[in-house]
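Q: Joint fold for the lines below.
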Amino acid sequence: MDFNYTILIPLIPLALFVILGIFSKKIPPSISGWIGSIGLGTTFVLSWYTAYTYFLGGKVDGVYQTFIYKYTWLNFTDNLHIDMGVLIDPISVMMLVVVSTISFMVHLYSRGYMKGDDGYTRFFSYLALFSFSMFGLVLATNLFQMYIFWELVGVSSFLLIGYYYTKPSAVAAAKKAFIVTRFADLGFLIGILLVSYYAGTFDFQEINNLQGSIITSWAATSFMGLSVFTWGLILIYMGGIGKSAMMPFHIWLPDAMEGPTPVSALIHAATMVVAGVYLVARLFPAFYFVEDGFALQIVAYIGAISSLVAAVIAITQTDIKRVLAFSTMSQIGYMMLALGVSKYDGHEGLGFMASMFHLFTHAMFKALLFLAAGSVIHVVHSNYLKDMGGLRKYMPITNITFLIAALSIAGFPGFAGFFSKDEILAAAYENNMLIYVSSVIVAGLTAFYIFRLYFGIFWGKNKEYEHTPHESPWSMTVPMLFLAFMSIAGGYFHFSEYISADKIPFQSHLDIPLAAIATSIGLVGIILAFIFYKKENNLPERFAQSFGVFYKWTYHKFYFDELYLFITKKILFGVVGFSAAWFDKYIVDGTMIGIGNVTVAISNKIKGLQSGKFQDYAMSFIGGSVVIAMVIFYLWIN
Amino acid sequence: MIAGINIYEILSLTSILFFIGVYGFVTRENLITVLLSIELILNAAAVNFVLINTYLYPDLLQGAIFSIFIIALAAAETALAIAIIINLYKLIYSVEVKDTETMKY
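A: Joint structure:
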């Protein structure tokens, strides 16, 4: 089997980025959209072909093989070298499919959505840059390569959030996203340095090697009661927390919705934000075996807390994209907790499979939710629920596709989300009751908030619109229909045949009792949303009032933004920054200025010596001579 | 050897000459008179050379020859100094010591 053609998958978008970026003024919009779409279409075909050949023939003795094609990029010493290359294994192939599919669909969709925009070509070049970086991240063979592409997706995300750079809120959001993730990436970098220093390698294969130095001898070096590898993995996971918008670095994701909606679908729902999940999955053996999975416990709890908090916040938000943003955060929390509760061997590794499965299905239905929301926003010209209502009559395709995606995320039987969520709940049930209970609650909340959105947009009040809404053009509805198809069909892949922690296929079955519990909770959520929002009534307000303070807290996202602002503005800038500035101004500068002043004062005092009167000089000379002569004379006579 | 004159008397003379020169060099306000004072100092030295040659080493000639060197040197030095003073006069229309202070810059 030869997969070296997969190097084309990242290189095609890179070429697109260069071409579209350099000639952005020369290429007319009608062509640039096509160039981008065709390029990504090629990667789409290549990725599916790779997946097809790999999953059909990539097994030797029932174990999926890993194919690595790399060359040494920077060679420092025999041990220390940074490679660039392509790593083909089940999860990277699965991610290739996800990224290329969503990216292709978003390209097609953007041709309609961005029509008439000034920066049309620039938009497509950024999308290509993002696709390139994301493919590079997915295919990375070592931590360092992953880190490079990790930062590149961060940059593309920054560029795309700040795409409407004349809008101050977009600029602020871009800055916020970049700074918050960058801060988290500091942990990632330190983690990489720690792990690679003690393991002597950047390479994923060697880090994950079950006979390798990390997994067999993690206890050799410890720091403050934990293995240094545990510290390293926790710090690496910190990068994942930032990128995947987990608590407490989630604050950038809602603001990132300032970017164009296709960007939210591609980057902030389906691909980039799951990079953290992918990172943990990529290092899963290390996470699982080092310190008996201590770092993995942290992954699980952070995932569980984030999914619960985000789901609660999502209920009260009024901006539909923000609801979806918190929903994304909640679902990524699901993936994280599934990884966290997973074990390694065979069926025990259900959580790992469930996480990847949910990543796949979530990418499809969440991208679809965003694209459908974009379609609505495109027509209504507003992000707010209060400006929408009764749209089902005007936009039948958007209505149907949104409903499919909503049913899928709510875990309605038969839809993709149902299957993947069931696997996650089964994995949680087997390993951690607390996390299981919280996940079930989240399942109910998810069903509620997503149907609140659905009924609020497409049913509810019959609003009068200035312009009669109309269905979006084909260029937008076709990708939506494809993703709607995937949101159903995605659940029928036998994921456990393809992806498992130890790369050995196993059989997984629907856990009927657990599925029944989750489904009934989901149905309760849907029915509640139906009662509350199907027809306009005052139930939601009365309900909100009865919750009082809690509602207010939730509406303000538990004041996380305010907390961060307090920390940065008041504590960092106010106390630390102020005292540092004082120190700089009065101690550092003061010392230097003092030295300068003393020198000037001394020179003022002694500059009279150099009077320019040569007779004075002669006097000094003679006086000096006389003194020396007297000294010599005195010594001589003694 | 000069009959009836002690070496100390002549040394006193040259010392007086030397210190008159030094005093003049330090106190005169006119560059020309400063130059004259330098001549006095040089002449005191020249007389000393001849004197010590005559009284201490009467059979040698180095002291006398050195005094000739000093006279030649003084002539050259005077020529140079006069040239400088003339140029200075062209520049600032003055040969006063106090007007040359600005030369320190």
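Q: Anything notable?
A: Chain A has a mean pLDDT of 84. The beta strands of chain A are 59-60, 63-64, 67-75, 81-88, 222-223, 226-227.
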